[in-house]
Design goal:
- This protein is globular.
- The protein contains 4 helices and 6 strands, in the order ααβββββαβα.
- The chain has a 6-stranded antiparallel β-sheet with strand order 1-2-3-4-5-6, with helices on both faces.
- By secondary structure, it is α+β, with helices and mostly antiparallel strands.
- The longest helix is centred in the N-terminal third of the chain and has 48 residues, at about 1-50.
- It has a domain at about 75-200.
Length: about 200
């Protein structure tokens, strides 16, 4: 009886070790491709925020990004800058992260250089419920923020409270409110730093 138990335990340990090695090997093999895909997804998201073309092959998208966009720091704020061939800033993409309903929500908000307009909004990571809060990824929701006028005193709000310019997601009140809370925090903190830099 004891031998049978020992055999079972040894067998399970061997099987576990083999599968662990296989998984580790697969992860190591596919890691470069995973990282390449993650980079491509981020670059594509930033192009969207700037309303630039996101079509084409991976190489074309990355080349378009490298040609038009650079990572920089303004008043201690790490962001991406979209500039003209003459070096004039066209827009900034400011990263954000905040608490959603089930986890953190991360993404980028694009703003014009004079900080009076949102150029675009994209979410790069979230754990919201598919079909409900997960609909923040839908184009119809994100496009509401495109070209939205803002000021130093702007507080984003849905429906009539916000001038009827943006609508919450039906059935996903908590996620909708979390998004506005994150974006208003971004406007209050980060964008105000950029405003100080502009006026300085």
């Amino acid at each position: 009886m004891k031998k049978g138990r020992i055999y079972t335990v040894v067998f399970m340990l061997i099987v576990s070790a083999v599968f662990t090695l296989l998984l580790a090997g697969a992860d190591a093999f596919y890691r470069p491709k995973i990282e390449e895909n993650d980079l491509l997804a981020e670059r594509t998201a930033i192009l969207y925020v700037f309303d630039l073309d996101q079509s084409g092959s991976s190489a074309e998208i990355l080349e378009r990004f490298e040609k038009n966009i650079k990572q920089t720091s303004v008043s201690g704020v790490e962001l991406y800058e979209y500039a003209s061939a003459e070096g004039e800033t066209i827009a900034w993409a400011v990263p954000f992260t905040g608490a959603g309903l089930w986890g953190s929500i991360s993404g980028y908000m694009g703003v014009s250089p004079d900080l009076d307009r949102i150029t675009g909004l994209v979410f790069t990571n979230h754990s919201e419920t598919p079909g409900l809060g997960g609909r923040i990824d839908e184009l119809t929701y994100r496009e509401q923020f495109r070209d939205l006028q803002i000021t130093a005193e702007t507080t984003l709000a849905y429906g009539e409270d916000g001038g009827g310019q943006i609508d919450a997601i039906t059935g996903a009140t908590s996620t909708s409110n979390a998004v506005l809370r994150i974006l208003n925090q971004l406007l209050d903190d980060t964008i105000s730093k950029l405003e100080v830099a502009n006026n300085g």
